Amino acid sequence: MSWRRHISGCVFSLVFVVSYFTNKFVLSVLKFTYPTLFQGWQTFIGALLLLLFWKLGWVEMSRITRYCSETQRIRNQEIPFFFTLQNSSHVVSYTILKVVRREKMRWMTFISICLMLLSAINLPLYDPQFDNSGYLWAVAHLFCVGAYRVIQGHYQPSNLSDLEIQCINYLFSFLLLAAAAHPTGDLMAAMEFPSLQSYTFHCGCCASALLGFLLLLATVKLKSGISLEHFRIWCFISKVSAMCLSPLVFSMEINTPSLICVLLSHVGEALLVYSDREPQF
């Protein structure tokens, strides 16, 4: 029924917003600047809970590197800027599909891609809190997200469900991040982190891991009940909600040019969502 799909969409949006806000709080407000440990903790808890739910029969699984760059980005950038740059990953996806599969692009899709690309290029020029490190991680992140979107959409094994693939991602990412924790210096530096014994810090880390897992379940539940086009609409609504609410939760510095970049990027994303719903002739 349609009302059940709307409830699933609203739950997804709520968990989406709270999850990103919690990550932003731990990374920016509490200043836990160790991405391998933070994402390693999240992937470990995610894999553990997913396997536990499978054993209990609450989810079905017949079979059993992009994380660090995302962590660095959301720590160094405001949430509206984070999503604006993340939108440019669509440019990477469509470029790969154009080169590898020579897929034709609708004119509306081309316009939306141009808007997102121009917004991402101009945003660093007007960002009042420009951070070179944050934007370097942003480039790595958008390339990883763009490439992963192509793999997930066109080369995903047909015999694996979304939960099974995510479980593999969790386990592989945890092993990779655990191996990288010492060489990057995160492990030793985190031991001297001033808030390591803080109750707020522990609650924030636990909440971030749990919310990440709940977001996965909400995503799978929503995708199973609606079309891919409608799922993209809910993702867009969730991102816009997070951007609109973020100034009420976090202190932000934003000027008119950077706001225009944010708006144009999401106008481009809205056009992309709309163009994907239109039949191609």
What is the total tally of β strands? 0
Shape: globular
Tell me the series of helices and strands, N- to C-terminal.
HHHHHHHHHHHH
Describe the sheet with the most strands.
none
> What is the terminal-to-terminal distance?
31 Å
Structural class: mainly alpha
Helix content: over 70%
State the helix count.
Answer: 12
The overall pLDDT, averaged over residues, is: 82
Instruction: Tell me the strand percentage band.
Output: under 5%
Low-confidence regions:
none
- Total domains: 1
Radius of gyration, in angstroms, nearest whole number: 19 Å
Can you describe this structure?
With 281 residues, the protein is mainly alpha-helical. It has one domain. The chain has 12 helices and no strands. Helix 1 packs across helix 3 and helix 4 crosses helix 6. The longest helix has 28 residues. The model has no long low-confidence stretch (mean pLDDT 82).
What would a concise description of this structure say?
The chain is mainly alpha-helical.
Protein traits:
mainly alpha; 12 helices
How are the secondary structure elements laid out?
Blueprint: H1 2-29, H2 35-55, H3 67-76, H4 79-87, H5 89-100, H6 107-126, H7 132-154, H8 162-181, H9 186-190, H10 199-225, H11 228-249, H12 256-277
